[in-house]
Amino acid sequence: MLFLQQQCIRTYLFSKSKCVPFFAALLVLFHHGEVIRTKNDFITYEHFSFFQNGTTAVKFFFVLSGFLISYLLLKEQDQKKTISIKNFYLKRVIRIWPLYFLLVAIGIVIFPFLFQVLHINYSFPYTIGQVWLLFVLFLPSIVTFTYGSHLLEPLWSIGVEEWFYIIWAPLFKWIDNKFALIIGIFLLKILLLILCFNNIITDVLVVHLIKTFAFESMAIGALGAYFLYHTNINLQAWYKKYAAVNYFLLAVLFSFLFFRNTCIAFIGSNIFDHWIFSYIILNALFLNLILFIGIRLNSKSFFNNTFLDYGGKISYGIYMYHMIVIFAVIHLGKKHLLTLDPYLSFLIFYSLVIAGTFITAHLSKKYFEDFFMKFRSKLN
């Protein structure tokens, strides 16, 4: 593999550019912020495209996860002639489980008890007996499907990630033809989606699980990793030669994220609503963004700076804690915020939410997550 491609991978694995995960986590925060503000009688801007990117940002995380995990597995098997499934699982457990189960404990044990004692006007849609096993089995999406919105709703994507990790490592070890494996998983998922969207599969829970478990996103990320690991193409030169094509693809992605409602009104049809765009094209656009950032952005880029780099490092915490911070700001400040000018209320609300989430994620990383990460470093 060319040296430039190796540099590209190191760009991601060694935190040279963590800006996109940070921005993606913020998109989820803004989406949930407007949804909750709408439910609490605020004048909101939920109709703007920018505030409708919660699920879209999670798709990016899925593509990035498939890309990075698959590359690491390819590299390990190439260098060691095998894959240590034990070490793979331990690394994922150390990184993900502590914060995941901390949030589960907060959301189904601690908060319900405190809210009852403090007489906080919030009714949890479930009891611990109804949901604890679903959270332990990493099926938070079924909790939301069954009981509706709740404080732990963002954990659904962690469940999807965990099941991907459980399945992916053994398949990568046992199946020699990695390209056939990736394509096979992708085509199987697309087939299931076709059956859902053509009403051949109609059971609502089954349809929910097929749509939620976004293995097509991970497979597209994995396909990018496979290509990058094996290609002899000088992608640095390729991106320079076909810069216009790449900028067009980035413009399409940018338009979707920030101006899709305007584009739909201008074109006269919702070209972004078709499932092929949502489940295939959008994932491919995210993969192109990942490759572009890794290959084209150098260390002097605006997107490579200390603040954004650290934001990327705590993006997991930002994603996990933001709903709790939003709830706290709404509960403690609602009566004051509603009396203010809507624009001022908006600015104060998100200033408090972003600052509170960032501080919480920082403290969590420093005093909680990093304690467990010390054990992961020994596995390396």
Question: How would you describe this protein?
Answer:
- The protein has helices at 3-13, 19-39, 54-80, 85-118, 128-136, 140-147, 156-174, 178-197, 204-212, 215-230, 235-241, 243-267, 275-296, 306-313, 315-337, 342-379.
- Helix 6 (140-147) packs antiparallel against helix 7 (156-174) and helix 12 (243-267) packs antiparallel against helix 13.
- The longest helix is centred in the C-terminal third of the chain and has 38 residues, at 342-379.
- With 380 residues, it is mostly helical.
Observed structural traits:
380 residues, globular, 16 helices, mainly alpha, 0% strand
Write the layout of secondary structure elements.
Elements lengths: L2 H11 L5 H21 L14 H27 L4 H34 L9 H9 L3 H8 L8 H19 L3 H20 L6 H9 L2 H16 L4 H7 L1 H25 L7 H22 L9 H8 L1 H23 L4 H38 L1
Concise summary:
With 380 residues, the chain is mostly helical. It has helices at residues 3-13, 19-39, 54-80, 85-118, 128-136, 140-147, 156-174, 178-197, 204-212, 215-230, 235-241, 243-267, 275-296, 306-313, 315-337, 342-379.
Q: How do the helices and strands follow one another from N- to C-terminus?
A: HHHHHHHHHHHHHHHH
Helical/strand content category? mainly alpha
Q: Total strand count, please?
A: 0
Low-confidence stretches: 10-16
How much strand content do the residues show?
A: under 5%
Shape: globular
User: pLDDT average, as an integer?
Assistant: 89
Question: Can you give the helix content as a percent range?
Answer: over 70%
Terminal residue distance: 23 Å
Tell me about the largest β-sheet. Answer: none
Radius of gyration: 21 Å
The DSSP helix count reads 16
